[in-house]
């Protein structure tokens, strides 16, 4: 016979304002097996927990029901409290009367009645709970970082500094990511390359960091502490160990017609190329789609000029398999190509550019060597119009619904830098709202207006068209209640930011959940912002949502701390809520093994004592590997003989909840 | 007060527009080809209807000057559809007058080979109840 | 939402099975955002939508539930990779059986709600309740032996 204690939390007024907690405790006390029921202001507080501990000891409770916030919030807290009192932590059940009751209902009588039903269901369930003991699993002390931008580099460096080996997988031939493409950074205007490249070099040279550039994650299996990952190292056609990075091959390549991705296609690169001068590793890669040797079999100049003999046309993709304890997603972002915005003429006019293209046009290492020259005729532009929120904050099919966060600031930066270098340029910025929350951000934007005389126009651009060699920008000036048309030499679109395209497939591989915009979701928006809901998977940088460099770096550091915390452990406590087969019922049909996504079920031949002259009979029965089972329960429903059941969510437990609710 | 409110609700019902979705970016007015001819501009329709300030809109020339080209609707990032609002205000006026200003039998004599088909559709939208 | 006078009186009993990783978190998010739906919905947490045995649903109807809804992660987003596919197949089978038995299959529903879709959760529940309300009380499957 169970002795159950029920503890109803007020959560200050969060629950108590709409749920009559006294009535819930009163009703619970009348339920079968309940020997103690009480309410308290904050059950999760130390004194609240002590109340539970004392009650368990005093009344010899064998089961505890806590009516409080979501189990996703405080289940662990209360389980630990129960454990302190000597009760098995899995003898605790939580009735969610906050998120799923008090917060959504306004009528007190209705909410109280529902809270009582939820409490009753939890009481019914806990009576069938069995003490569970979590198994242990080893932790592989190695971390995988997917993405080699500033987020990935920072996380990798921090984890490596703590003494754990880290692998960075980067799909491009070099690490550095988007930050390497930036010119200066707001609001301090320090040069992006100057602060990033030392980090890249450090990551490349660190004894604990292994770079897998030009590589992609192919397959992930396993679980927290024990991931197995297959990485495809794409053939560079250049031997990494022999190449000295002299760059002679890239100079001599005759196929200099490929759009240079690093410069946003504004100039050309060869078929063998190093993305940019400070690339890490500084080893070229052959673009086989463009290479003459691969297309016609002739040429081979790069191989002839390479004194180190590093060119290897026969090189093949290589798949490596590695075990990791933790995986960090740092897949970053892309800027959308605003081709769907026909009215802005991005596809039509070469002088309508995105801000990332403008960034390259201003960069000393860019296609124009840092001279601001417009793409169409190479002349310096005198009138520049910036358009903000292109594709952000919209609800139509061509828009992203979110604010891309960094555009206001980088547009102010572009304006200031342009005015700094070319004071006679006139700059107009069409904005909807100027969003500058951040340290010294608003001051920076005000400098653009007050010190540099940048013309900020509240309104949006409706149309860009060409007239007499000028780009005519027609837009509204809402404060003047006018429609204005500006004659511009260049138009810069602050196009929206979107998560990198590879994020979706990685999310599926890792079962890391994503929101509707393909940003990775965090385990808790406030309290666990760098963890994915999938244990052992962490989030760093833009892949979680738009953010600027300082935020990315701090998030990267936070993710590293979480990884270090995980890798420092020698053993991890597993989830004891796993499947279990009753061998007396099992008929060895193999149905369960077929639906198990983890291959956790195997079969053994076992001898059973039977009545009759044979006395012993051998039968084939299912056995669950508890370390591998993740407790989804797919097998339990498939099992035709109901031999398979899930601990913690057994058939009888769920049925009793159903009964309690439908009573 | 209540009649003004009713008018607002009626216009919102007729147009199917939710003016609270507007983020006041001004793209509609930046796009509008008839902007200079209109006393009130597309973005003003959205905010004025939202505030229930409908009488000035009904009195203005803007409801007739609107070309019904739907450019504002097409480009609105928030899917607010200012043109639908303008149309609804215009319809309230026409329905109060209780007559069609354009009948289908009048159309043949107005046809012009240069006339875009859209203009006829727009004309019907504008001058009949 | 327009409800007629008689169905306004009718308070259906609705059981919602929510998977721990997506839908239960979505329900929590609906709560944090104070997006209300009627108190008639009672949620049962399961690790995955594939944990829900069709028998649980039949049991709920037997014991007097007027509607049962199963919520899981979006296809492809299952925490256990494939659980929601199994759930979808099983429920399809169950629905056609209910249909065959003459039970209104609108009383049962499968919905995919992610952890980020609090608003969708509330909207789904509101919609489901109004559907069940319009169907009225579930009498056919109610097991009289269970009545007190």
Task: Please tell me about this protein's structure.
- The complex is a heterotrimer of chains A (663), B (129) and C (148).
- By secondary structure, chain A is α/β, with parallel strands linked by helices.
- Chain A has five domains: 4-126, Rossmann fold (3-Layer(aba) Sandwich); 143-179 and 189-233 and 319-332 and 502-571, 3-Layer(bba) Sandwich (FAD/NAD(P)-binding domain), CATH 3.50.50.60; 248-305, no CATH class; 334-498, FAD/NAD(P)-binding domain (3-Layer(bba) Sandwich); 579-647, Alpha-Beta Plaits (2-Layer Sandwich).
- In chain A, strands 10-7-6-18-29 form a five-stranded parallel beta sheet, with helices on one face. Chain A has a five-stranded parallel beta sheet with strand order 20-27-21-22-23.
- In chain A, strand 8 and strand 9 form a beta hairpin.
- In chain A, helix 2 (46-59) crosses helix 3 (71-84) and helix 6 (150-161) runs parallel beside helix 15.
- Chain A is globular and about 95 Å long.
- Chain B is mainly α and 129 residues long.
- Chain B has one domain (2-99): Orthogonal Bundle (Fumarate Reductase Iron-sulfur Protein, Chain B, domain 2), CATH 1.10.1060.
- Chain B is 57% helix and 0% strand.
- Chain B has helices at residues 2-15, 27-31, 42-51, 55-59, 62-65, 71-75, 82-97, 107-110, 117-127.
- The radius of gyration of chain B is 15 Å and the shape is globular.
- The model of chain B has no long low-confidence stretch (mean pLDDT 87).
- With 148 residues, chain C is α/β, with parallel strands linked by helices.
- Chain C has one domain: Rossmann fold (3-Layer(aba) Sandwich), CATH 3.40.50.
- Chain C has helices at 5-9, 23-32, 54-62, 83-101, 118-135; strands spanning 14-19, 41-46, 67-72, 108-112.
- In chain C, helix 4 (83-101) links the parallel strand 3 (67-72) and strand 4 (108-112).
- The radius of gyration of chain C is 15 Å and the shape is globular.
- Chain C starts with a helix and ends in a 13-residue tail after the last helix.
- Chains in contact: A-B, A-C.
- Chains A and C meet through helix 4, helix 5, helix 17 and helix 18 of A and helix 2, strand 2, helix 3 and helix 4 of C.
């Amino acid at each position: 016979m169970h002795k159950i204690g029920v503890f109803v939390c007020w959560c200050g007024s969060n629950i108590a304002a709409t749920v009559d907690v006294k009535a819930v405790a009163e009703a619970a006390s009348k339920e079968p097996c309940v020997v103690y029921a009480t309410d308290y202001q904050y059950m999760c507080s130390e004194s609240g927990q002590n109340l539970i501990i004392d009650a368990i000891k005093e009344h010899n409770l064998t089961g505890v029901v806590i009516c409080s916030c979501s189990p996703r919030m405080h289940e662990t807290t209360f389980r630990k409290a129960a454990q302190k009192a000597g009760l098995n932590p899995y003898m605790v059940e939580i009735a969610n009367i906050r998120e799923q009751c008090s917060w959504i209902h306004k009528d007190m009588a209705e909410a109280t009645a529902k809270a009582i039903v939820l409490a009753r269901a939890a009481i019914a369930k806990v009576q069938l709970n069995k003490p569970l003991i979590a198994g242990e699993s080893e932790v592989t002390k190695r971390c995988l970082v997917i993405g080699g931008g500033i987020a990935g580099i920072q996380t990798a460096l921090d984890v490596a500094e703590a003494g754990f080996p880290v692998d960075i997988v980067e799909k491009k031939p070099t690490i550095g990511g988007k930050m390497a493409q930036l010119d200066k950074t707001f609001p301090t205007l320090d040069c992006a390359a100057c602060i990033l490249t030392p980090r890249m070099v450090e990551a490349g040279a660190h004894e604990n960091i292994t770079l897998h550039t030009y590589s992609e994650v192919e397959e992930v299996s396993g679980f927290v502490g024990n991931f197995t990952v297959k990485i495809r190292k794409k053939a560079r056609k250049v031997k990494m160990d022999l190449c000295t990075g002299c760059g002679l091959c890239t100079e001599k390549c005759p196929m200099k017609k490929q759009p240079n991705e690093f410069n946003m296609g504004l100039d050309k690169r060869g078929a063998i190329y190093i993305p940019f001068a400070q690339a890490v590793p500084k080893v070229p890669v052959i673009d086989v789609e463009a290479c003459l040797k691969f297309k016609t079999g002739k040429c081979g100049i790069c191989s002839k000029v390479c004194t180190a003999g590093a060119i290897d046309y026969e090189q093949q993709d290589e798949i490596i398999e590695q075990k990791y304890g933790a995986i960090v997603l740092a897949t970053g972002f892309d800027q959308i190509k605003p081709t769907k915005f026909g009215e802005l003429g991005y596809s039509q006019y070469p002088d309508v550019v995105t801000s990332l293209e403008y960034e390259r046009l201003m960069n000393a290492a860019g296609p124009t060597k840092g001279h601001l020259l417009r793409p169409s005729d190479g002349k310096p532009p005198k009138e520049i119009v910036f358009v903000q929120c292109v594709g952000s904050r919209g609800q139509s099919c061509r828009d992203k619904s979110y604010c891309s966060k960094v555009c206001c600031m980088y547009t102010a930066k572009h304006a200031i830098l342009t005015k700094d270098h070319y004071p006679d340029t006139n700059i107009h910025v069409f904005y909807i709202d100027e969003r500058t929350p951040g340290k010294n951000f608003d001051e920076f934007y005000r400098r653009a207006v007050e010190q540099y005389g940048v013309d900020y126009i509240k309104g949006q651009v409706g149309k860009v068209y060409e007239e007499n060699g000028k780009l005519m920008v027609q837009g509204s000036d809402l404060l003047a209640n006018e429609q204005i048309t500006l004659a511009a030499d260049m138009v810069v679109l602050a196009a929206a930011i979107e998560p990198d395209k590879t994020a979706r497939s990685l999310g599926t591989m890792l079962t890391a959940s994503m929101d509707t915009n393909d940003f990775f979701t965090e385990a808790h928006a406030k309290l666990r912002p760098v963890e994915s809901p999938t244990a052992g998977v962490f989030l760093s940088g833009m892949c979680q949502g738009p953010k600027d460099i300082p935020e990315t770096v701090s998030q990267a550091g936070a993710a590293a701390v979480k990884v270090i915390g995980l890798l420092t452990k020698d053993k991890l406590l597993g989830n004891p809520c796993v499947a279990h087969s009753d061998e007396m019922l099992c008929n060895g049909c193999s149905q369960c093994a077929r639906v198990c996504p983890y291959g956790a079920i195997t079969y053994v031949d076992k001898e059973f004592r039977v009545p009759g002259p044979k006395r012993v009979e051998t039968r084939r029965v299912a056995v669950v590997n508890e370390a591998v089972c993740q407790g989804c329960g797919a097998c339990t429903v498939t099992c035709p003989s109901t031999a398979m059941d899930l601990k913690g969510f057994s058939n009888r437990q769920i049925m009793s909840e159903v009964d309690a609710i439908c009573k | 007060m209540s009649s003004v409110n009713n008018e607002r609700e009626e216009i919102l019902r007729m147009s199917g527009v939710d003016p609270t979705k507007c983020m006041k970016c001004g793209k509609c007015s930046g796009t509008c080809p008839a902007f200079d001819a209109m006393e009130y501009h597309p973005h003003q329709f959205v905010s004025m209807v939202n505030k229930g300030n409908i009488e000035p809109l009904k009195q203005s020339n803007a409801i007739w000057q609107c070309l019904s080209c739907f450019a504002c609707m097409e480009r609105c990032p928030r899917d607010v559809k200012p043109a639908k609002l303008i149309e609804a205000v215009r319809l309230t006026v026409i329905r109060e007058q209780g007559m069609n200003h354009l009948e289908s039998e009048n159309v043949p004599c107005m046809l012009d080979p240069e006339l875009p088909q859209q203009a006829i559709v727009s004309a019907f939208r504008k001058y009949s109840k | 939402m327009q409800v007629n006078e008689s169905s306004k009186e009718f308070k259906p009993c609705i059981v919602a099975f929510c998977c721990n990783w997506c839908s239960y978190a979505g329900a929590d998010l609906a709560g944090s955002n104070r997006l209300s739906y009627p108190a008639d919905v009672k949620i049962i947490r399961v690790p995955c939508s594939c944990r829900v045995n069709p028998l649980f649903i039949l049991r709920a109807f037997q014991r007097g539930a007027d509607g049962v809804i199963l919520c899981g992660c979006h296809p492809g987003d299952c925490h256990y990779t494939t659980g929601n596919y199994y759930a979808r197949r099983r429920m399809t089978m169950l629905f056609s059986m209910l249909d065959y038995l003459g039970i209104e299959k609108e009383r049962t529903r499968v919905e995919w709600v992610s952890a980020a879709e609090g608003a969708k959760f509330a909207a789904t529940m509101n919609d489901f309740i109004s559907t069940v309300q319009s169907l009225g009380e579930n009498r056919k499957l109610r097991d009289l032996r269970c009545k007190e």
